[in-house]
Amino acid sequence: MRRSLRVTIQLLLIFITVLPAFAQQPVRVEVDFAKKVGPMNPAWAWFGYDEPNYTYMKDGKKLLSEIAALSPVPVYVRAHCLLCTGDGTPALKWGSTNAYTEDSQGKPVYNWAIVDSIFDTYVQRGMKPLAQIGFMPEALSTNPTPYQHDWKPGDPYFKIITGWAYPPKDYQKWTDLVYNWVKHSVERYGQKEVESWYWEVWNEPNGYWKGTMEEFFKLYDYSADAVKRALPTARIGGLNIAGTSGKTGTQWLEAFLKHCAEGTNYATGKTGSPLDAVLFHAKGSPKLINGVVRMNMSPQLRDIQTGFKSVLAYPQFKNLPLIVGESDPEGCAACGMATNPSNAYRNGTMYSSYTAATFARKYALADQYGVNFLGAVSWSFEFENQPWFYGFRDLATNGVDKPVLNVFRMFGKMSGDRVEARSERMYPLQMVLDSSIHGEKTEIGVLASKAGRNAAVMLWNYHDDDRQGAAEPVEVQLSGIPAGSVTFTEYRIDHEHSNSYEVWKKMGSPQQPTAAQITTLEKAGQLETMGKPRKLKVANGSVRIPVALPRQAVSLIKLDW
Length: 561
Prior knowledge:
Elements: H1 2-23, E1 27-39, E2 46-49, H2 58-70, E3 76-79, E4 100-102, E5 108-110, H3 113-124, E6 128-133, H4 171-189, H5 191-195, E7 198-201, H6 213-230, E8 236-241, H7 247-262, E9 277-283, E10 287-289, E11 292-294, H8 298-312, E12 321-328, H9 349-369, E13 372-376, E14 378-379, E15 396-397, E16 400-401, H10 403-411, E17 417-423, H11 429-435, E18 443-451, E19 454-462, E20 472-479, E21 485-493, H12 500-506, H13 515-524, E22 528-529, E23 534-537, E24 543-549, E25 554-560
């Protein structure tokens, strides 16, 4: 009797232990492909980085080829330091092209060799420059010494602000430089090609500019005038301000818009300045709390909201393309997790799920304000000859793709129109603007699209606290499918899929992996599927798909018919 009682108790304890797993109700997600919300414009297909000389180096070329291949449309690329003086040797947060020097008589000498090697790399891959006019050549700087900085991770950020950040001592020489650069680009690549680019002046003038606000407007006017004289149909914009929703950021953006709308043009004396696109920055703010990284997307989204609202204050600008010139979880790409522990999110699936969740909100903000949201530049590329998985904000390490790049591969499979998609566990937009995603439960979010004979549904299980967690059941109810059957494929980024970082750690985190290990890591860095594609029957335009989604995972359900 006692033995029977013990067995009964043991069975009861086992039942109590496993009951939550059986009793857990799936999170319900509903997608209606027949209800359009807006265009699935490829706002994600924009990338940028500080170090332009990485562009034509081994791993730089490899990564650019992969980025170009993942997108069905041309990708735009933005880089700093395209006019800086130097021999082209890269360093962290530095680059140079030696495009402008002067001879012994002070006459300009133009040398486009390095600039051409950068833009050639883009154009050969079908990519488009978001060409940054900056920074100040040494021979033109009003305060050239010291010129190249020696900043390294852990140093104060202000150390990078040296002679390249000053106004020109001769605006005529500056405008001639810009004119000749654009003219040379048209001669080299053709008018039609250069017409498809965007030009922009400087970067973050509220931090990277050692002149006054009015001096910056003068620089912009002379630059824009030079661009338009060389190619009247060229597109130019500004001002890529930092901290858009902060006091100084807002002041700069609003003053710039007012100057372009009604100010006196320093170059022409006319009213207003050419403005073909408005650019501003948006950054989040992660912290380390009791050894765990906690993300915060609210500042990043509020920056975007402020940028949208500022432009709408000017009716003549309301239809202009809006580009978030840098849109990231925080500010410093070259600050690794060794010196900045709060950046430890960058190697794993936190970065990928954060990217999915924030881009969904960028589209939602654009819908709310009715703006022409063209793109958001992910300031994340690669760093040559650096330690493996050092925690830089990059898409690949030593030629091996990191999980975050696979989110962009997923986005590359979404096109056509965004369609109505709802999840009972998706945080409301206003709540995320106010307090990010810090709640008791993770977010099960959704973004969906339909184009022609295919559709895609992106799902993520995200929380600001960078912790792993067991898979949760999700029931995806799809309707509005114009076919009797579909081919179903699920792509996945999680602890076990599309994740070179976890594979590298299981190898023992080698800093000098063998050729065989590198081959394994390269394969692990690609986008993986959950099993093989299979056929599903569709009843009355609908189908139900169960998904088990771990914490910080991203799935893409792809339907073809």
